[in-house]
Amino acid sequence: MSKKLSKRIKEALAKIDQKKAYQPIEALELLKETATAKFNESAEAHIRLGIDPKYTDQQLRTTVSLPNGTGQSIRVAVIAKGEKVQEASNAGADIVGSEELIEEIQKGMMDFEVLIATPDMMPKVAKLGRALGPRGLMPSPKGGTVTSDLGKAISEFKSGKLEFRADRTGIVHVIFGKASFSPKDLLVNLKALQDTVDKQRPSGAKGRYWRSVYVSASMGPSIQIDINALRDLKLEDI
Predict the structure, then answer these.
(1) For the chain, which has fewer Cβ within 10 Å, the N-terminal or C-terminal residue?
(2) Nearest CA to 63 among 147, 157, 149?
């Protein structure tokens, strides 16, 4: 039985040509226009890449610093010991702890968006793999979340740095701002994301790397973006 579409979704869909790949700024203007929920929706990007992440040389996991931030309040947790605990607190971490924090997470406490760990705590953090892995929260050096420079890491994640990875089907899902952002601010963030995906192209990626890019408000319909137009765009021209 097909799901009946709400009047709100029908009206949003009517504004989009499903067969068209839009110019980036045009797509983001449409994203704002179709964000008609009663809350400030997130702006989402869904990028399908020509990779097969079951091969280690075709995996993509990295970070991007969004110039205009995410528009979200990011809660950062830190697992450290000794003087690093105080350092993390002073740097603005929301949750800080050592073995006791590892135990809390094991019991199901997940009240954070980013988890940072110092290198010396990683042998103990390893036991959290089953709980954190599926949520994409496991600290990793590649993701910038295993570090001794806690002040810098906390500051960066609080101000718009985020980690992302390609899922098992080779699709990257990233929230790159809020529907309340201006189209220009959204475009600057989206361009930073595209640049990062290009720079971090896995060594094993063969043939056509970019397959499709869609954006949407979190409760709105998908809007296809012309990939070449986005990649050809220069940041200084936005």
Answers:
(1) N
(2) 157
